[in-house]
Amino acid sequence: MKNFVCILVLSALTFSANAQDSFKCPDDFGFYPHTRSCDKYWKCDNNVAELKTCGNGLAFDASDPKYLTENCDYIHNVECGDRADLEPPISTTHCERLYGIFADEAKCDVFWNCWNGEASRYQCSPGLAYDRESRVCMWADQVPECKNEEVAGGFNCPANGEVSNTGSFSRHAHPDDCRKYYICLEGKPRQAREYGCPIGTVFKIGDADGTGNCEDPEDVPGCEDYYGDLDLKSIRKSELLAGLQSSGASRSTNPAPKKSAPRPAPASRNTPESSN
Predict the structure, then answer these.
(1) What are the Chitin-binding type-2 domain coordinates in residue numbering (predicted)?
(2) Mean pLDDT along residues 169-185
(3) In this structure, what are the phi and psi dihedrals at residue 142, rounded to the nearest 5 degrees?
(4) Is 108 exposed, middle or buried (0-12, 13-18, 19+ CB in 10 A)?
């Protein structure tokens, strides 16, 4: 009886495989999804079917209702539905599969774009980390697996209650760059978001703890020469014109200052220092 059941199971599997191998083209030409595999599809040419397989890490996009599009895309971009089967992964350095976008195992603000096993390194902007689920760069405090010291240079926000005269957030000067500063959100200790002042300005520490604004370098002792010999008036004029032309749209990257010096510590109190 047991042997009879095994024979029935094997017969069913053989019938299912043969059904796929004997795929009948619905039309003379087209590209049709495999019923079980998300990374396989049928190519029909002159009513002859050929089984094709996408690159390792890609899946067949069957969203074209006319079946005239041959498109393999990243697996996470394809609705596989019941086509759950995939070829076994083929991995290389930094690549779980030959094609795809993968997080770095050591640094949460780094991710890798893999194409045919070749990995290209990308890094999120300061204060951001790569979110594995949404596959975009987000604030580091919104990425559970990310530690703040990995993306904020070791800067830690003050504990709740340590900073007075603040509301829902506080501002803190970057210890090494006059133009940068951190914002700490209330109730989220150790989670610092890094920001930068507009071109031509630097961050000036406020009179009260956790406050400050972006001001002209000449008004911030120790940061007067932050931009070196750059013509700030011309830069601001071009920025204004670009803003008017784009009506608030994002603009190209601003020119970097010619020299940058560590921010001087104020005499009245200690500023946060980065830890190595």
Answers:
(1) 22-82, 92-148, 154-225
(2) 86
(3) -100, 0
(4) buried
